[in-house]
Design a protein that fits this description.
Elements (H helix, E strand, L loop, with lengths): L1 H5 L2 H8 L3 H18 L9 H20 L2 H11 L3 H6 L3 H4 L10
Helix pairs in contact: 3-4, 4-5
Length: 105
């Protein structure tokens, strides 16, 4: 995905100039599609937790491919959408075991 973005100068330009509402729409659309149409290879403990992980990965790839720091702020702002859910589940420490080192591809 990173390479596909970087190999398309028009896409890099559009992503670099994107406004937050459009960024939010892209992440909402992609995460909704990926978390409902293509379940993870291993069952996620929660659909919302899976959506958080997909959002983080997609944001990382967009920021890495474009090199635009403004998008880092967008990524952080977007993740704020999940704060109430995370808090209602006892925070990250309760949701994920500190000893849990398994990574998802």
């Amino acid at each position: 995905m990173d390479r596909k973005i970087q190999d398309n100068p028009e896409l890099v330009s559009k992503l670099s100039a994107i406004r937050y509402r459009s960024y939010e729409h892209v992440l909402d659309t992609v995460t909704r599609r990926l978390t409902t149409e293509a379940p993870p290879p291993r069952q996620s403990p929660s659909p919302t937790l899976h959506r958080i992980a997909v959002s983080m990965e997609l944001s990382r790839r967009i920021v890495t491919a474009t090199g635009t720091q403004r998008l880092e702020g967008y990524a952080e702002r977007y993740m704020d959408n999940f704060v109430p859910w995370i808090k209602s589940h006892g925070g990250w420490g309760k949701m994920l075991s500190i000893d849990w080192t398994e990574e998802w591809d």
